[in-house]
């Protein structure tokens, strides 16, 4: 009902502002609310300012953002490698692409990669066998002056020189889909954390995944696989927004067979990458689930499939 009265005048106001390249100064004023960071407040540094902008300014900015996004994507203004502020792309996809590129280089036995961190430190990404052979002076004489580190934090993720997830597991427990594959000892550590959380919810000791399923949770392996299948679905059906550097390829059937309508993915030759893990997992799904084009039905059926897989083990 309110939209019927405000829609027309608000549209005229915003169109006039866009036409005249005008942004009202009243829309730039924010109401600041200071929230304490801790229990004791001794100075301004102990307060976290939260700014609340007028609603009209947010509506105006959102409309401009949508129009610019369509214009930029349609005319390919930005480079394909840029993922910031683009729909369907995030730091997660960028990190996955970085990891896949390094893994592929290691598989080809290429020279190890130097990771420059703030131009003061360097990390050589390689396998344990290669790192014993290569030294800093083999890359650049000036690089010896830098400090060599074994682990660093990049885009919120802790990466070490052998692309292992040990350091990240130590610092944070985050069920993101590019934890694939994980060593068994790290999986056991994550399982203990999940069992402890389930024990707190159920008020009794939890020692198997059947108790975890009772409260609607997936086990660590199945949660990882569900996130991987979700990303695989987006790569298949949201090709316009999904980053090209993580694209997956459908398998083409040359002959007209009964199973030619079933969607299957091409498994790449490089293993341990996103495309490899996602394709194998997707191809193992039943045909009825693979052919679903709806996002929510696909996730619901995939979740049920993974739950049944846990119960059958």
TrEMBL record:
<protein>
    <recommendedName>
        <fullName>Reverse transcriptase domain-containing protein</fullName>
    </recommendedName>
</protein>
